[in-house]
Amino acid sequence: MSMEVDEDVMEVRDVAQGQADRNLPWVEKYRPGQLEHIVSHKEIIETLSKFISNGTLPHLLFYGPPGTGKTTAILAAVNQLYTETEKKSMTLELNASDDRGIGVVRDRIVTFAGSKSLNSFMNVEGQNAKKFKLIILDEADSMTKDAQNALRRIIEKYTENVRFCILCNYLSSIIPAIQSRCTRFRFAPLKTSLISPRVDFVAKKENVNLTESGKKALLNLSGGDMRRVLNTMQSTAMAFPSVDEQSVYKCVGQPTPAEMQTILKILLNDNFQTACKKLESEALAKGYSLSDIIAHLHDIIFQLELPSDALAQVVAGLADCEHRLAGGTSDRIQIAGLVAIFFKARSVMAKKAKNVKNVPDPLPIPIRNPRQFGSLLDWRSMHNWQGTCPGTRHENSPTDEFAPNGVRKEATQCWSRPQTAHGVLPTAHVQTPRN
């Protein structure tokens, strides 16, 4: 009878455990538990493994963008350093949800660091790696400067008993005194070639209907952040029957590549007032963040073969616009500023021509990857002469007579300041042909 009861209890526990696993975020459910299971940062992982095997773990400082494996690496190291029963007494983890003021450093951290473990009194072979405790300060960016200054002395005082592992996104947020006391490792954004197999593995385990377009969208939006990829895939799988491109972009609330192509066409072709109105309807009316649009534009413009000075002007303008948005300025005003950035770049492209013959009709912007971006320019609206001139080459016009220097003889016989959709070319740019 008791045996039957025990079996029933075990069955209930298994069902409860399975339900708990289903409710876990996939980031936690599929987090690697051992260092050898981490697929990225091989050099860092090999170095940590040697530290652990030799029992010579120094103070550590992990820094890099979110989702690149900093927390996973140190938690996997903890699993190799301590048993399940030792973890509670040998490790202390403080994250962003904990108070990071000077009081916590002086009380909680000092109390934990000052108490010695049982292993420190035992001269047992093989226990050398377990003589020290480990304090993990996750997201140390939020620590105040006073708390960091107090921590500096604690690190030195309790080195015999404790090792510190400090995790942060930005190295500049950690004072130099702490940086010099730690061995620093930078966790770079993950390559898509490393993220892709993990996405396939999780999708197979969770029976997710993941399409190729959906996988490509996940990788494009990842920015090297594994956490972001898994969270986005889990959210999309719960909200939509399949994880495809459209469902992924709807889930994250960002413009699709087709919508970004439309936005770029507007910026490259329309006049100022029309472009502002269209962008407001494309961005604000659909609820897109202007910061996301700017980030996508930054990636796209490098696929266009723009003149160097025009490209530099656009990049600098996008940086200024993003900085102003971070300060809490109006999206509507910054949309007008975004249109102005491209409008100025279009003027630069027109003014680069030395004479009327060299001002193409329309202004060509070659595309490095035409299959990806298609035709971005509307030739009729991109460049429109305000009149007819014998020196202007039109699509069906006969071949004009050229002087030896390559300038049409009739080039300056119509006007001295030709009009374009991008402004008026200065008179100095229109050269009189020499006989």
Topology:
Elements: H1 2-23, H2 26-29, H3 42-54, E1 60-63, H4 70-81, H5 84-90, E2 91-94, H6 102-114, E3 133-137, H7 145-157, E4 162-168, H8 176-179, E5 183-186, H9 192-205, H10 212-222, H11 226-239, H12 245-252, H13 257-269, H14 272-284, H15 290-301, H16 308-326, H17 331-351, H18 370-373, H19 379-382, E6 419-420, E7 423-424
Parallel strand pairs: 1-4, 1-5, 2-3, 3-4
Antiparallel strand pairs: 6-7
Helix pairs in contact: 3-4, 6-7, 9-11, 10-11, 10-12, 11-12, 13-14, 14-17, 15-16, 16-17
Question: What features would you describe in this structure?
Answer:
- By secondary structure, this protein is α/β, with parallel strands linked by helices.
- It folds into 3 domains: 31-186, 3-Layer(aba) Sandwich (Rossmann fold), CATH 3.40.50; 192-252, Helicase, Ruva Protein, domain 3, CATH 1.10.8.60; 257-351, Up-down Bundle (Zinc Finger, Delta Prime, domain 3).
- Helix content is 51%, strand content 6%.
- The protein has 19 helices and 7 strands.
- It has helices spanning 2-23, 26-29, 42-54, 70-81, 84-90, 102-114, 145-157, 176-179, 192-205, 212-222, 226-239, 245-252, 257-269, 272-284, 290-301, 308-326, 331-351, 370-373, 379-382, and strands spanning 60-63, 91-94, 133-137, 162-168, 183-186, 419-420, 423-424.
- The strands form 2 sheets. A 5-stranded parallel beta sheet has the order 2-3-4-1-5, sandwiched between helices. The chain has a two-stranded antiparallel ribbon with strand order 6-7.
- Helix 6 (102-114) links the parallel strand 2 and strand 3 (133-137).
- Helix 9 runs parallel beside helix 11 (226-239), helix 11 crosses helix 12 (245-252) and helix 14 (272-284) packs across helix 17.
